[in-house]
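I am still getting used to backbone structure tokens and would like to learn alongside you. Would you supply a protein for us yourself, any chain you care to pick? Start from the sequence, derive the backbone structure tokens from it, and show both lines together. Go ahead whenever you are ready, and we will take it from there.
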Amino acid sequence: DGLFAIEGLSHIGPSSGSVIRLTKKGAKWASATFAELPAEGCAATDPGDGTLLVATAPQVTGNAGDGWAKTSTKIVRIQKDGKVETLLDVVDCFSQPTSVAIAPSGVVYV
């Protein structure tokens, strides 16, 4: 129940984020953390099964050498109980996800 929003901060390496639940109590809205993300949440979609798919920002995970940083962008599923399951970990991805969509065939596009 309620509305869900993704939020976070990613700046020069450190990245953090969460899924928050917004609920209306009378005339006022309240928010509470529903799930902690492995990095800043950038895009999300509802697969229709009561879960939420979230694409995270690239997070610096180490030094790749030659002045380059190792990065990791994740696609995670937020379960109905708030547990976070990593579905895909894309290493050395510098692109910031801006959308997530699911085709009728079930293929997830980021």
